[in-house]
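agent> Task received from the user: take the single chain below, predict its 3D structure, and emit structure tokens. No templates, no multimer pairing.
agent> Plan: (1) validate residues, (2) run structure prediction, (3) serialize to tokens, (4) report one or two observations.
agent> Step 1 OK, no nonstandard residues flagged.
tool_call: predict_structure(input=
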Amino acid sequence: MGAGHDHGAKSLGEKHRYRLWIALAITVTYMLVQIVAGLMTNSLALLSDAAHMGTDALGTGMALAAIIAVGRAAAHPLRTFGLYRLEVLAALANTVLLFGVAIWVGYESIQRFSEPPEVASIPLLIVASFGLIANLVSLSLLRSGAKESLNVRGAYFEVMGDLLGSIGVIAAAIVIATTGWYYADPIIAMAMAAFILPRAAKLGRDALRILLQTAPAHLDLKAVTRSLADVDGVEDVHDLHVWTLTSGMDVASAHLSISADAVLGEVLAAARQRLETDYDIKHATLQVEPSASDKACEQPSW
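)
tool_result: status=success, residues=302
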């Protein structure tokens, strides 16, 4: 017997769709400006930031595509969980792109250390300053969604990287303008690559944890078992599984052995309420069985 909530609810990221659209427009526009300016000023730091913004734009675009697909799939009769995992797959693909950019920037920086080319510092400073403003606007748009959606969080981290990149490019432009030390450009570019890698690794780790259906890191499964066992009428809890469907959406299933005099409906309602109140698990499939002494449940061989 099951107890749970409807899966037709909107994805957590869907309500942030329009903010993502605005952030995407800002990112693409400024990326094109960076590419042109990077080629004109001969700045690797600016070109590497443009490449990072390119993955930012692609990642935000994938997040939007996933959110739209999830919304359209919710009513499909065969997709009982919708397509929530598309958001996670998009985040994983975004991770791969971030790693690729970091490796490319690192390689190009090393090549320039042997003989750094001249860089036009004043145009570099102007473009980077506009980039700083654009990234601050995008960050403000994505901040609230980053707390709820893995995909929006990925976009938020990328924009944060872009923000720091803009600061780094501004610093490089000031150093070059005041000292003529052109090594500042590849050094800043390499620092940006080093900044990208750990954040890409964390995003990828979070996505893989969901895809592998690992129990949420913040949950103590023993504590969950004890909470369900404390419900009046429950004698035993077994075959407990908790996993994450998509960011901010944990689900669970469990077998509850109840005493002979327990009221089935009351036990189910209390157990479900306990999971939602204590652990924010809003969907739970609970199988109710006779007293544990009857041994009515056979565990699967796997």
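agent> Step 4: summary for the user.
Residues 245 and 293 are 34 Å apart (CA to CA).
agent> Done.
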